[in-house]
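Cross-posted from the bioinformatics board.
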Amino acid sequence: EMDADPERPIRGVDKIPEVVVDRTAQIEEHVQRIFNSPHAFTADERTPFSDEVCITCHGRGMETLFNIEKETPERLNEPCLSCHEEGARSHWKGSTHEFAGLACVNCHAMHNERPELLKADTQMEVCGSCHLDRRSDFGKPSHHPVPEGIMQCTDCHNPHGTPGLRKLVGHTINETCFNCHAEKRGPFLWEHNPARESCVTCHNPHGSIHRPLLNARAPTLCQQCHLGTHSDVGLSGAGMDFRVQGRSCLNCHSQIHGTNHPRGRVFRE
Amino acid sequence: DEDDEVREAAQEAATVIANRPGMEHKVKREVRVGLGYLDDDSFRLGRFTGVNEEGWFLDLGFRFEGQDAHNSESARYWELEGRNLGLDSRRLSLEAGDQGRYSSFFYYREIPNTLYRDVGTPYRGSGSGRLRLPAEGGRATAEGFLQGRDLSTSRQGVGVGGRVNLDSRWRASTAVHYERKEGTIIRGVNNNHLWTQERSALVPVPVDYETTRFEADVTYDADELQGRLGYQLSVFSQRDGRSLEVPDATRLDWSDAGDNAGTVSLEPDNQFHQVTGSLGYSFADTGRVGADLALGHMTQDERFVEDVAGLPASLDGRINTTLVNLRASGRPHPRLNLRAGYRYDDRDNRTDVYEYEIDNLIRSTRPVSYTQDRYHLDASYRVHDRTHLSLGVVRDENERTFSDRKRTDETAYRIGIRSRALPRTSLNMELGHAEQRGSQYERQTAPEELRQYYLADRDRRSANLYASFHITDRIQVTPRVQWIDDDYTRSELGLQQAERQVWAVDLSWVPTDRITAYGFYAYENTEARQAGREALAFAAPRNWRSDRDDESVTLGVGGEYDLRPDRFTLGAEVLHIETSGRMRTLVEGGGGGVYPSLESRLTQVSLYGDYKVSENLDFRLRYMVERYQEKDWGIDGVGVTGVGNLVLLDQDSPDYTTHLIAGALRYRF
């Protein structure tokens, strides 16, 4: 947004140092922004800000107006958690991010007007500012449409913690994937064991140089587990044929997630 | 001091604003009208947005929002937004509610995904349950009967839901999401030939999926105790029927190909029901215990595509899933932070094992069940004012049915340090070691020495470094290094070693109050080695080794210059991403060789200017040039009949230079 927020972020980096030119001049703008936010509604009895205004969050002596980097995460999070330890944030305590010492203000800026009060315009910028590797995954030829703004990190993860592994929104990896790829859920007459157990056995959901989001390219990927009657050959570029070109193993075994065909034992039909 | 003056100024400002007499319901309206031009077809550039064909495109959007004044008697808000309305990625959303009382949402969205444009295939028809081949053609003349097809899918989704606060502690919410996915994808079809006959075709397969999800829950939130009880349902429907008949394009004469059509199964309808519950209790400021329970039931009862003696008419597939999660965290000592948890994840496949005869062979199905138990304990100790040392251990125990290894377990240890002791510096470092072992490996088929990599004995070492340095008030550098080394050398055959390293750094710099600049760089390398053995009928088996080396480099620089503060801003970014994938195989006694390199190279230069014409009108002009080139030996120059007895697609990897220019006016009123 062009001038919605003076803290306008730059792509890929939410760490642009905030250079304060004139603190006194800027403070009124800073205060006004919180009055435009959901925290300021007096009609919502759950918002203590409306009672005590600044000191609700900044402390009786307004201690945390400055130098918040010197405060402990617990001290910084306390005013937030006094209201927000519920719903999608009820798994915060004990979560990986909490245990790693993150504070709410590492990702959120309460005095702005962005959705979810995020510090940057996109989740990829906020999350990617620490998860640099994941951000670069999304630049690879095969990726979920996160950089294009069609998906966002919270479609699959809840950074505040979940009952699932890796802060996934589903209880398991596959449950999370099946939210959008329900056709692969099954059950099937013929099931491919690793696919039933975890999609990430073969896929990197963030991005890969191998389509579609594969950890390696066929036939290499398949030969890590299969050296059967025709998959045992030391295939290479010297002998290009039906087993490596086109879609390699998937030229025939295309129903690799599972199939309902009575002849589908080797996932061709 | 000056800090205190600012503190006072803040509180004074807040008091003034808070006491302003009741303002009216505020409404903000914004309309965005944009026009852009793409100078060349390039399906990849806009594959998820719809901007991928040469010509003009419209970028229309609006955002209307309103909310009560902060000190009015209600806290009503609403927001109606339309985005990308002129494009295939259009979205319309509405949110409305009264904060603290209720909230509601509605959305409609479309998500395109262009896989390839104008791919040549001799197959005709789609969505009719049967593909066709031109009767006058045949494999040898297939090139003359190609028809261009666009491979793409489009998701159209609509959702509606809401939440109501029953009182200050109880809330109820519900939502329904419906999505339809339509289009054409490619699938390999083998027409039931033996592999030795090498006869397969890549065929366009229709996609017409429908998924409906329903969610409802009730939550209780008190100061110390929080709870949630929920239900969710997911119903998937395949609207294209249960099968597709595909004639065999590898036949020399297609006039009777229809008589020899094979039947492939399409994804069957399925359902998933799940009841979920959570309880959490906070105590003594930092302590919390919690439990989660999720009971799921998956079903699938689609009629089989052919009747087979020994098989019922449909699967009657049933799977029960159970998840139990117990967790506790707290601070028994001011310096010590602990967390521990136990997780039970069970997939109990109640689908019958079917044994039946087909093509004179007895087949026995393998409905997969598994149980995973996971225990973890982490401790973090504050050794110094702002320095923490952490230790952690995770134990995973897995049991599976119909698997070469009934049981695997992994114990992972990690030690880390995080510190902000040095001024302007934050440092996080972690080292890990994990060992996966398991029960006796019992392979049902040769070769006996093969170890499937996700079941195999594995030693994993890892290192992770993340740091942040404020070199000055105006410069910040953030490096990150990751390294994971997986050792499978107990596997005589199969994956033996995999090593992944990532080196990345972000740099941000504010040289003057009107200039911001940034850069980012990431290098990733994955190297893996696997071993195989060719079982030869008339000679001794030959061992082989295959090495894989994947690399990617990402480099970006950009910045903004406030030519006239609050009025005119110029920005630029250059992004370059290069990836490569190399593989080679060495066969004992000679043989094997190097695969050509898989490559992709993206260079993107963006320039933009934001100009504020008046108080409520601004204009943005953006120019972008994208150069993209990909090389894939699996498809480039191969042709439709260029490989053995396969019938492939007429396609080449994308290679384009495309310019995009777009201007947009935004008017607020």
